[in-house]
């Protein structure tokens, strides 16, 4: 037996995942936490603020990525995603300041998840 034998027989825990799949899962998790925290905001307002902040961090990261010159997405899509970042930032403030609903935020996230799946939606 050589030193490399254990490596050859090691189990591969998870198959390689695409970046699209990882992005989808991350957005889905953040969206689910946001919905759950919204429904429980009276009992755990700090938890709701954390979930809303996590959603905003997600969108800040997406905006930073689409702003990079080397980003491979079409320019028009990059511009729309950056606009959605600006909108989510503004609406998130409105949610905290005036008790506006999170529905539009979760709708946006869901639309992006459909796009990541390649689902064009209704015709």
What can you see in these coordinates?
With 123 residues, this protein is mainly alpha-helical. The protein has one domain (17-117): Up-down Bundle (Four Helix Bundle (Hemerythrin (Met), subunit A)). It has helices at residues 5-8, 19-39, 45-67, 75-98, 103-117. The radius of gyration is 19 Å and the shape is globular.
Global morphology? globular
Structural class: mainly alpha
Number of helices: 5
Work out the radius of gyration: 19 Å
Which regions have little confidence, pLDDT < 50, spanning 5+ residues? none
CATH topology group: Four Helix Bundle (Hemerythrin (Met), subunit A)
Q: Assign the CATH architecture.
A: Up-down Bundle
- Averaged pLDDT: 88
Number of strands: 0
**Mind summarizing the main beta sheet?**
none
> Proportion of β residues?
under 5%
In N-to-C order, the SSE pattern is HHHHH
Cα separation of the termini? 61 Å
Produce a short descriptive summary.
With 123 residues, the protein is mainly alpha-helical.
Describe the secondary-structure layout.
Elements: H1 5-8, H2 19-39, H3 45-67, H4 75-98, H5 103-117
Helix pairs in contact: 2-3, 2-5, 3-4
Descriptive keywords:
123 residues; mainly alpha; Four Helix Bundle (Hemerythrin (Met), subunit A); 71% helix
């Amino acid at each position: 037996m050589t030193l490399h034998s254990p490596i050859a027989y090691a189990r591969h825990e998870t198959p390689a995942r695409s970046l699209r799949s990882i992005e989808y899962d991350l957005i889905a998790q953040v969206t689910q936490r946001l919905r759950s925290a919204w429904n429980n905001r009276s009992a755990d307002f700090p938890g709701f603020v954390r979930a809303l902040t996590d959603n905003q961090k997600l969108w800040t990261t997406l905006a930073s990525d689409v702003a990079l010159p080397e980003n491979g997405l079409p320019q028009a899509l990059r511009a729309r995603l950056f606009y959605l970042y600006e909108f989510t930032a503004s609406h998130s403030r409105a949610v905290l300041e005036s008790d506006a609903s999170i529905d539009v935020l979760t709708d946006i996230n869901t639309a992006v998840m459909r796009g990541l799946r390649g689902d064009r939606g209704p015709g």
